[in-house]
Amino acid sequence: MGLITFILFGFVVGLIARAIMPGRQSMGIVATALLGIAGSFVGGLLGSLIHRGRNIFDLHTSGIIGSIIGALIVMFLVGLTGRGRRAMT
Fold first, then answer.
1. How would DSSP label each residue in 42-62?
2. In percent, how much of the chain has pLDDT > 70?
3. In this structure, are residues 70 and 40 in contact, taking their beta carbons and an 8 Å threshold?
4. Can you tell me the distance from the alpha carbon of 15 to that of 88, in angstroms, rounded to the nearest whole number?
């Protein structure tokens, strides 16, 4: 998968994850793409642990679903750390 395709895929995954996650997420286009890319990596890593022998960077249906789940996990964890920081100001 090329770099541009990976970034576009990450952006789409980030948009889907933001649409699924309840609440307001104030992030721009770049942050959404980075969220999707991180989610794709987390989802691919979890998928490769479940299905041994598959490459993390292969594109398949379970990888797309895993990428969305991974992006939701990343967004949840970032939301947890962001709330503690916001309460201090």
1. HHHHHHHHHSTT--TT---HH
2. 76
3. yes
4. 29
Quick one: tokens of 21?
Answer: 């996650």
Cα distance between the two ends of the chain: 42
Q: pTM value?
A: 0.74
Which position has the token pair 């995954």? Answer: 13
- 3-state SS class at 21: coil
Nearest Cα residue to 79 out of 14, 12, 23 = 23
23 backbone dihedrals φ, ψ, rounded to 5°: 100, 180
Mean pLDDT of all residues in the chain?
A: 77
| Residue labelled with tokens 């649409």 | 19
Q: Which pairs with CB-CB distance under 8 Å and at least 24 residues apart come from 81-89?
A: none
pLDDT tens digit string along 52-87? 665 655 556 667 888 888 888 888 888 777 655 544
